[in-house]
Amino acid sequence: MELTNALAHRVVVLDGGMSTALEQAGHDLSDELWSGRLLLADPDAVRAAHLAFYRAGAEVAITASYQVTYEGFSRHGIGHDETSALLRASVALARSAASDVDGQRWVAASVGPYGAMLADGSEYRGNYGLGKQELVQFHRPRIETLVSADPDVLAVETIPDVDEASAVVDVVRGSGVPMWLSYSIRGDRTCAGQPLEEAFAVAAGVDEVVAVGVNCCAPEDVAHAVDVARKATGLPVVVYPNSGERWDAAERAWTGDGTGFGALAGEWTERGARLVGGCCRTGPDAIGVLAAALAE
């Protein structure tokens, strides 16, 4: 069954934070390449993380390609052909993990924002100072390579502003490849400060866009975003916020207990969310709790 068909009938459970699962397994992700480095250094660890999420109840695995870009990897001596191979491997690893569990599973190829390549937190600010065509040129090669690996859907995620969303939509428009578009937000605006109505409108009427929503945000910001997304596009809504813990940049540590994540999921689905999972600080255990709650 295609993912779009499933969304017409029920809520589909996404996985959680790949980096969280890898860190919980003891891997150091402190360099600029983040979880993408393990596609090269330890692909078995990436497969194991996908499998842990699938076994916890996730039906969709988001690949470890978020941080994998030709520009970013070239700075670390990794050439174009090797980067292409790693992008394709990210999809293959998630697909391989799915073969070890029963039931329908899907693979979403992660397309992270331009700011992820900069590794300086720009994905939470946007407004990179680039023109739309420059963003199109950045995203097109990576998206084309990921598409060649035959994922079920492209997960265009953690997009901070309307300009970048518009550029990615232009790359995918007319391709026939399904995608979801997910913004990083603060309160009722994108991280770049734009109204959510304007942000979601970018996806309205684009055949390839099968869902819109938010990720890598506070759980308490999700409900309003679901309402706006539904009104602006009429599409299924995808939500995968952080656990609710906060990153203290000065102390370089997470604060809070993350109890708000699972408790709010029922409200999100009642409002129209159809793809629900977690982002930062949500490992397989958190997704297991979420999947059980949604099953009830």
How would you portray this structure in words?
- Zn(2+) binds at residues 216, 279-280.
- Residues 1-294 form the Hcy-binding domain.
- It comes from Lentzea flava.
- Pfam families: S-methyl_trans.
- The protein contains 14 helices and twelve strands.
- It has helices at residues 3-7, 18-24, 37-41, 43-56, 70-74, 80-98, 114-118, 132-148, 162-172, 196-201, 222-233, 260-263, 265-271, 284-295, and strands at residues 12-13, 60-62, 106-111, 153-159, 179-183, 185-186, 189-190, 209-215, 237-240, 246-248, 253-255, 273-276.
- The strands form three sheets. It has an eight-stranded parallel beta sheet. Strands 6-7 form a two-stranded antiparallel ribbon. A two-stranded antiparallel sheet has the order 10-11.
- The longest helix is centred in the N-terminal third of the chain and has 19 residues, at 80-98.
- α9 (162-172) links the parallel β4 and β5.
- The model has no long low-confidence stretch (mean pLDDT 94).
- The chain is α/β, with parallel strands linked by helices and 296 residues long.
Structural class, by secondary structure, is alpha/beta
The number of distinct β-strands equals 12
Major sheet details: 8 strands, parallel
Order of helices and strands: HEHHHEHHEHHEHEEEHEHEEEHHEH
Q: Give the uncertain stretches in residue-range form.
A: none
Mass-distribution shape: globular
Work out the radius of gyration.
17 Å
Give the proportion of residues in helices: 40-55%
Average pLDDT, rounded to a whole number, is: 94
Strand line-up of the largest beta sheet = 1-12-9-8-5-4-3-2
Query: Helix tally?
Result: 14
Q: Approximately how much beta-strand content do the residues carry?
A: 15-25%
User: N- to C-terminal separation?
Assistant: 23 Å
